[in-house]
Amino acid sequence: MTTETTSTTDPSPDPAPTPNPNPNSSSVIHPRREPFEHGLLPIPKLIFPDTTQILTQLKQKLASHNRVNSSLLADSLQIPADHARLILDTLASVLNSESDPLVKAPPDEVDSAGADLRDLILFLYIQSYKKLLPRTHKDAAAVADVWPSTSAFDGYLSALSPLQLVRSNSRRFMPSQADEEAHQLSYLQKHMANILSLLAESVEGEGEESLVLSMEGFDHLGFLIQFGDKGSEVVTLSQAAPFFANSDPDMPAVPVPATQVLDWISQNIASALEHITERISAKENGPANSSDPDVAMADACTSSIKTSPSARGSCFIEGISKSSFVKQALDLKGSSSVKVLNCHDSILYILAPLRYATIYGCSDSTIVLGAVGKAVRIEHCERVHVITAAKRVCIANCRECVFFLGVNQRPLMVGDNHKLQVAPYNTFYSELEEHMADVGIDANINRWDETLALGVVDPHDSLSHPAGVSDVQAESAARLDPDQFTNFLIPNWFGGESPGSTKDNPFQLPEAYMASQQRNQKNLGEIKQLLREVPLEENQKRELSSALHLLFKDWLYASGNIRQLYCLQGD
Fold first, then answer.
1. What is the H or E stretch that residue 260 is in?
2. pLDDT greater than 70 at residue 149
3. Rounded-to-integer distance, Cα 358 and Cα 344, Å
4. Main-chain dihedrals φ then ψ at residue 317, nearest 5 degrees
5. Residue 452 maps to which CATH number?
6. Sign of the torsion angle spanned by Cα atoms 424, 503, 488, 397
7. How many domains does the chain have?
8. Relative to the CA of 82, which of 131, 257, 284, 539 has its CA 20 to 30 Å away?
9. Residues 6+ apart with CB under 8 A from 251
């Protein structure tokens, strides 16, 4: 199998690549992917006509406030209060500092904690980022086989379903991790001068030399970039930079001219882009390695490929088809994020504490995520049931899916969604509460049905859309009928005493769903009692038992649940 990969960079010529200007470090500069993957909000008022000018004015307006709460932000940007709170919650989910008061604050104290003005400025700046587009499909006939050309659910945005859109751009034609990293680095390379000007402070002098960066201000760039290779720990920027590395901890570091910082970062980015280009070229010209996470996303996506670890704590679960799949905490040790990509007609259990999770391009599957402490993004999925305990959830461009949520923040609905349903969390496994405590999820808060719908159009996707569509709100989700609500049982793969202490669903069910459960249990008990008391001869009882077993077996095969039994037998 050959790998097709395109490296996308800024069209302007890059400066001549130079070796890493920090000779004492073998680290390579990387973009932090979290702000670009989980921090972009489709709010039109955050797409500024002149980003630098408006954010400079915002910085000056809020200069007397070290930290900014939602009411101050709403007033400054002239946006609704719930959008301002969403900005703070989203920023908290992608910040690089776990010690920041905004990250540590419980939900009812987020406003009193507020956001650091410099972090907020950087977050608002990257709302100008445009995602890397997938390449067009080379076989239009293949697309027609996936989904009908028209559908009762299709609106004016697209004649394709979300999954058809994904498959029409098959992961073989989606950008690889290396391509996305190059694209993010090129964006930062192009905008770094503006970004530094927003972080810098003015001193007496003329021209650009009057702008300087303190060590503290410089470290805020860690929101966007970081140093660290595979297997190495990420270091703070001031530790990696030659102009702050040897600063006396007992003395305030001398501010550095912004031009000097820009030169150093630009050289590092140019070197990193050269490194990525060489890596991509080597993969294209060498034998394909489907387990490599930098391979274009779905070249590694075959039914025989299950998981692949990635640099900097990511694990990819790809191409699972018509099977059951289990990953537990020990299997994901060292991975802080999981991406579930292009899995179909399967049941996946990912029972581990995570920071981030992405589910993309899946269909006709049930996916159980353990505890996700930062953010879950579910995109381009169809007829999928997702069960997760999470801090926040974003759902984009999905159809006919049901989401069983234990979520501390309002679920975010964006894009071209159709016929979605939400329901309260409906399962548990023995280590669930321990995992929730590890990542900071509060079982006493579940906002599963307080969905917040934003725009249908994502201003970050670089696609053209019909006039007027940008103001259309995304379709929200309906509450699942309580009579359709059932508990989901996770098998015990340990085969004996479970290692954890969780014995039941840690999230309290709403009254209507609890009443429905009790009715179902009562009805089941009555049916069992009737069967026990029915006056039958022994041979008739055997015939009834045989008929029930046969019907149950037929249901197992018709529903696909027979695969779970085979999976358990295999374990």
1. helix 258-285
2. no
3. 15
4. -120, 115
5. 2.160.20.70
6. positive
7. 3
8. 131
9. none
